[in-house]
Design brief:
Blueprint (H helix, E strand, L loop, with lengths): L2 H7 L2 H23 L2 H17 L9 H20 L21 H12 L3 H12 L4 H8 L3 H21 L10 E3 L6 E3 L1
Antiparallel strand pairs: 1-2
Helix pairs in contact: 2-3, 2-4, 2-6, 3-4, 4-7, 5-8, 6-8, 7-8
Amino acid sequence: MELALRFATGGEAELEEAIALYGEKLVRYAASVLYSHQDAEDVVQDVFLYAYRNRHRFDGKNLQAWLYKIAYNDCLDKLKSKKRRKIFFLFDISEEPTTYMDDIESISEIDEALHRLKPNERALLYGRIVDGQNYDELSRIMGVSPSTLRKQYERIKKKAARHLNDCGYGVKYEPLYAINSKGGQFYDA
C-alpha cells in the first residue's frame, strides 16, 4: 500500500518513513524561504509533528503536497513573526551555466536579487527550479491556480534577471515557453 494511504491511519513507522522520504527536501524548501537552515529544521520538525497529530485530516491522496503546504504556511508564519525577508537559495536563471557563479561578488548580487522577492515568490521559484515541481503540485501547496502560478513564475524570473542585468551581469532570460534547439518544439521553461 502507498505511503500516503498508510500515513493517514498509520503510526510512528509511517511517520519515520515520511521523514526519511521527504525530510531533507522539506528542509531545503524551508531554507529557501527562511534564509536560515536552523529555522528550516525547526519548521520541518513542526511540519512532521503537525502532520502526525493531524493525520486524521489528511485525505490520503498526495502526502508530499500536503507536507509542502504545511511547510509553506509555517514558513510564512515564521517570517511574519520575525518580520524578516531573507532567502537561502541560489539559482542561475540562464539556460547555460555561467562562469560568474564562482565570483563571490556576483553571488551576493544574486542573493540581493532574491531578497527583493516576496516569500511566496521565492517559494514558487524554489519549487519550480530546485524541487522540479509542476504547476499542479504547486497549486495545491500555494492555493493558487496553475495558470496564475505560470504567470507569476514568468514575472518573477524577469524581475530577478532585470536586477542582475542592472548589476552588469549578462543574464539570459528564457520566456515561459521556449523553443527547444533539438527540433523546435515548445516546452515549459
